[in-house]
Design a protein that fits this description.
Strand order of the largest sheet of chain A: 2-1-3-4-5
Structural class of chain B: alpha+beta
CATH topology of the largest domain in chain A: Rossmann fold
Shape of chain B: globular
Radius of gyration of chain B: 22 Å
Number of helices of chain B: 12
Strand order of the largest sheet of chain B: 3-4-5-6-1-7
Oligomer: heterodimer
Strand content of chain A: 5-15%
Helix content of chain B: 25-40%
Number of helices of chain A: 10
Number of strands of chain A: 5
């Protein structure tokens, strides 16, 4: 049987999610035993021929320029499954902060007098699914390496990987953490999709919401929780800007 | 059977000689922390405090367990990993024993006996304990219980000042006492009288703190509640953030999710973990990606389901209330939903 072929690609991001793949260490060797990586700029010297097809394309980063959108459409056309990797790819993440401002303001802030140069043209940030069809999402900033291994393995076994459809609080309560609201913090756990094992609250921080909003957040309850702890819904919105700007 | 008196030191020595287990569910790649009890000396002072935040449910029905591996490289038909250890649970409270009796009905004594539950149930030696303190949310007396065990234990402890009155409730418990507390002296009539007075005081205290709720239900006398489609549930559901804390810490909630974890090329592990009926994904049905078919799409219907399961379906199915009044869900709820208030306001 022909081994499934995997390509790994990146757009606007810090490449930390690819680093997580490298961090899989022993597990990556297992995975490489059952797949053939054909294109991976960060870790391979030989790259695939132009136009070659993949069984799975793992794509990191957000789309911030029209030429990126074009390249993503080309990857999509070559891939049987396209998996978005990490917050930049799944929800736009930190890159969407700039969507809160005008594009000219953004360019001038970053590049000053050089802002008008043609190669600095930029557009509001998009997550991958806002440009092409995405088959699966591995959320997080960075991704949970084990979750990626699970998704790839499950796909290779011919099964459908599922995403948690409940908030981070579920996993946080299972870990018996004290609620971050009890420490006077604003935690995005109640409205954020689980799957990380409540990593940040377990390490003593509030949830930053890097896995995006849960499918059907109970905004009324979130309001009441905020009110109970003497906060407002605007406080919550402020915290959401970091990873969940529109 | 006779009741004995032991000092705190005698009890700690008797229990302390028992080696703690590492964890249940050997062979799993990840594990939830509280399933593993810490080996070492018994925290005697904890026996005089209110019941713990977490119930001992996880010892009978672990939050996450492997039911076996299968596939070409694993060899098919591998059964669950054997624990191979005798475990003594110390300090189990009356509400928790009642909850375990309820789990027995569901998981052991029905048409299908769950093998891993039944095995753990037999393995565990249960040393129960009278409550001599309670939390603000304890309400066992309002649902037909009382804060001291009346049976279902191997050994029971009743704190009395500087020591404990110890009583065996089973043959296995009697043997454990004979082996570990051979030197214990019989309790005096005055000590027995003091224990009984304390039990009456505790029951009165729990009843007093719940007087305003007017719950007064029992296994044979469940409340009548509106059905799950009734809009009355919506006011309570508005406070629910769907965190699942109530079902996780509930000593009787037992719903689980079964899935196959892919370990490697053609090698799989069947895993069971706790699920929660409050979560939308619990009710989701097959129907293709994105369709999200659910008979309980509304959170109010899911919240109603949990309460009705406790106070309506379970009495009909097993003759037992599914709520033992431990009050953990009252404490754990981020939205401050108090199940006593829910039943009080909605009962007809």
């Amino acid at each position: 049987m022909r081994k499934p072929r995997i390509g790994i690609f990146d757009f606007a991001c810090c490449e930390g999610c690819q680093l997580q793949i490298v961090n899989l260490e022993e597990e990556i060797l297992d995975l490489l035993g059952v797949v053939t990586p054909v294109e991976w700029r960060e870790a391979m010297s030989d790259q695939a021929e132009k136009g070659e097809s993949f069984d799975i394309a793992l794509v990191e980063g957000s789309i911030t320029r029209e030429e990126d959108a074009e390249r993503l459409r080309e990857i999509r056309a070559r891939a049987k499954f396209l998996i978005a990797l990490g917050a930049c790819a799944t929800i736009g993440g930190v890159n969407k902060l700039k969507n809160n401002f005008g594009m000219n303001d953004v360019k001038e802030t970053v590049y000053g007098e050089a802002a008008d140069m043609p190669h600095l043209e930029t557009m509001p940030t998009k997550a991958l699914h806002e440009v092409v069809q995405v088959d699966y999402m591995v959320h997080g900033c960075p991704i949970e390496a084990a979750e990626l291994a699970h998704v790839v393995r499950t796909l290779l076994a011919g099964k459908t990987p599922t995403l948690p459809a409940y908030p981070v609080c579920v996993e946080c309560k299972l870990k018996e953490n004290a609620c971050r609201f009890e420490f006077g913090e604003i935690c995005l756990g109640p409205i954020t999709r689980a799957g990380c094992g409540a990593r940040c609250p377990s390490e003593g921080s509030w949830c930053f919401g890097c896995r995006g909003l849960v499918d059907d957040p109970n905004t009324q309850a979130a309001r009441e929780v905020m009110a109970h702890y003497g906060k407002t819904i605007d406080d919550l919105r402020g915290k959401m800007l970091l990873f969940n700007s529109k | 059977m006779a009741t004995f008196y032991v000092t705190e030191e005698q009890l700690a020595a008797a229990v302390g000689r028992h080696e703690g287990p590492a964890a249940f569910g050997a062979g799993l790649t990840e594990r939830l922390p509280w399933i593993a009890p810490t080996p070492g000396a018994l925290d005697v002072a904890a026996l005089s405090r209110p019941r713990a935040a977490q119930s001992p449910k996880g010892f009978f029905l672990p939050a996450l367990e492997s039911l076996g591996r299968y596939g070409t490289s694993a060899g098919t038909g591998a059964g669950p990993a054997e624990d191979g250890r005798d475990i003594v649970l110390v300090g189990v409270r009356a509400c928790e024993l009642r909850a375990r009796d309820y789990l027995d009905q569901v998981l052991r004594d029905g048409a299908f006996a769950d093998p891993t539950y039944s095995r753990r149930r037999e393995q565990l030696l249960v040393v129960a304990c009278d409550c001599v303190d309670c939390t603000d949310s304890c309400f066992c007396t309002a649902v037909g219980g009382q804060p001291h065990p009346t049976g279902g234990y191997d050994v029971n402890l009743a704190p009395v000042g500087d020591g404990f009155l110890v009583e065996a409730g089973s043959e296995r418990g009697r043997a454990w006492l004979a082996e570990r507390l051979a030197g214990a002296i019989e309790a005096s009539p005055a000590q027995l009288e003091a224990r009984d007075a304390r039990r009456r005081d505790m029951a009165e205290r729990v009843a007093r703190q719940n007087a305003d709720f007017g719950l007064a239900v029992a296994d044979a006398d469940p409340p009548t509640l509106p059905d799950d489609g009734d809009p009355a549930w919506q006011a309570f559901a508005a406070d629910c953030v769907e965190c699942g804390a109530c079902t996780n810490i509930c000593p009787t909630c037992h719903c689980f999710y079964l899935y196959d974890q892919v370990l490697g090329a053609e090698q799989f592990e069947r895993v069971r973990n706790w699920d929660s009926c409050l979560l939308a994904s619990y009710h989701r049905m097959a129907g293709g990606p994105g369709m999200k078919l659910s008979p309980r799409a509304r959170l109010s219907s899911r919240l109603a389901n949990r309460v009705l399961h406790k106070f309506d379906y379970s009495p009909r199915q097993y003759g037992l209330l599914g709520c033992v009044g431990c009050g953990r869900c009252v404490e754990g709820c981020l939205g401050e939903i108090d199940i006593r208030r829910v039943v009080q306001e909605l009962r007809r």
